[in-house]
Amino acid sequence: MFHILRIGVSTPSLFLFFSESVLIYLSLIVAAFLRNFIATGDAMMFEHLLPKALIVVFTINISLYYLDGYSGYFYARHRELLFFWVILQAVALSYIVLSIFYYIFPNFYIGRGILFIHFWVVTVFLYAWRIIFNWLFPKIEVLNRRAVIIGDDVFAQNLHAEILKHDYSGFSVFPMKVPPQENPVEDMIAFFQEKSIHLIIVTKDTLDKLPLEFLWQCHLRGYQILDGLSFYAWITGKVLYEELKPNQILFVYAPANLYITRFVKRCMDIVFCFLGVLITLPVQIMIGILIKLTSKGPIFYTQERTGLYEKPFIIYKYRTMSIDAEKTGPQQAQDKDPRVTFVGKYLRKTRLDELPQLFNILRGQMSLIGPRPERPHFTNMYKEKIPYYFLRHAVKPGLTGWAQVKHEYTNDLEGTCEKFRHDLYYIKYFSISLDILILIKTIKVILTGAGAK
Q1: Element counts in the chain: helices (H) and strands (E)
Q2: Pairing state of beta strands 367-369 and 398-400?
Q3: Could you tell me which of 153, 194, 143, 212 has the C-alpha nearest to residue 177?
Q4: Fewer CB atoms near the end CB (10 Å): N or C, the chain?
Q5: Per-residue burial over 49-71, b = 16 or more CB atoms within 10 Å of its CB, e = otherwise
Q6: What is the pTM of this model?
Q7: Average pLDDT over residues 33-51
Q8: Within this chain, do residues 284 and 221 fall inside the same structural domain, yes or no?
Q9: Residue 84 within a domain
């Protein structure tokens, strides 16, 4: 597993991405070869193919990403024949995008005959490679880093179980109890060499029980040593607040307060908001007209939310519920909520009801990326029930966030705790590159309507 844009990316996914990029390019060469050979009897290759082929490679890769083709989730759900259907969808989607691109930039057009042949060649190539890879993956040592979890506490057991859930995480894990004090170094080093261990994971409860000499000898021999919390965050994209200690909060959660980072983030907010307002203005006018024509009440809906350092502010949204939706007090949205209007249902599904918050961002009350702002009523309630919930307000609330792209909408305490773990990950590993990744994932959420209520 590699760390890219502050996110743990599994070695198998990375290997698939690059190997399939080569396959897509080769399939285009094969298509050009066949097209020219069929048309003229000459095997001469298509001129200037490389720059035009890179566009095709990129488009198909992105389509596979948006259909979860590079995630362990894909392999958990899709086997054998279903591989073909997902790959066919990805190639078809990429060709729709390419058609629009070629219409705008005709100089990059490859040719109808080549593209027609390529459609079927690349589909067969990718399908065959996925089947082969699925069979080869367990046998390729370089794609599976061997790790050992030292500890017999509850967290060590949970961490081992979490890794087993990710079939294609790129780790083969061996659990190990705390060794006896007599000669632990020689015995454990011998075990690591026997199992070809690359990574040693130590839980916080186990760390105090291990001799310093043992850890130092492992370090000198080139073994990577990682604490359990960091490894858990690496593979899941969330931080377990239940395992945090006060010193970890005081001395680790600082990146979001760096001046230069906040300055760049604010510049990004302003630029993206101005572009967003200009691009979506016709859509926003149409939304306002539809809301007014289909239900009684105002177009906009205002509500008090908790912002940076728990300072309250007024948030703006398009009204998606009836005007008496909260006549009995604050309520969270439910599955198939009867209070949601006909137009509001689609606005919520596509997240378009959040567009007026671009003005909150321009005013500096929110950021483009960050934890979603909660209502003061629920903020106070969660602070009493969830440890360290105040950390959520260490950064500005956002229009979208890591929790929103990683977890579906929730209206219960358990779901809120899970989203808070994702929010903590964002706060801890805050960076501009992570913001960019969240923007990319947000587009996917908008297109698929995932997690909406």
Answers
A1: 18, 10
A2: parallel
A3: 153
A4: C
A5: beebbebbbebbbbbbbbbbbbe
A6: 0.74
A7: 63
A8: no
A9: yes
Q: Is 351 helix (H, G, I), strand (E, B) or coil?
A: coil
pLDDT at 144 over 80: no
* Closest to 371 in 3D by CA, of 355, 345, 390: 390
Claim to verify: residue 273 and residue 405 sit in the same structural domain: yes
Report the amino acid identity of residue 140. I
Tell me which DSSP letter residue 137 carries. Answer: G
DSSP for 293-323, please give it: HHSSS-SEEEEEEE-GGG-EEEEEEE--B-T
Instruction: Annotate 195-208 with b (16+ C-beta within 10 A) or e (fewer).
Output: eebbbbbbbbbbee
Number of structural domains (the chain) is 3
| pLDDT tens per residue across span 352-394 | 889 999 999 999 999 999 999 999 989 999 999 998 999 899 8
- Say yes or no to pLDDT of 43 above 60: no
Q: Are residues 204 and 332 in the same domain?
A: no
Mean pLDDT of the chain: 80
3-state secondary structure of 167: coil
Q: Render pLDDT for 225-281 as a digit per residue (tens, 0 to 9).
A: 888 888 888 878 888 888 777 766 665 555 555 677 788 889 999 999 999 899 999
Q: Tens digits of per-residue pLDDT, 76-100?
A: 444 555 677 788 888 998 999 999 9
Query: CA-CA distance, 352 to 343, in Å (whole number)?
Result: 11
Q: Is 247 inside a domain boundary? A: no
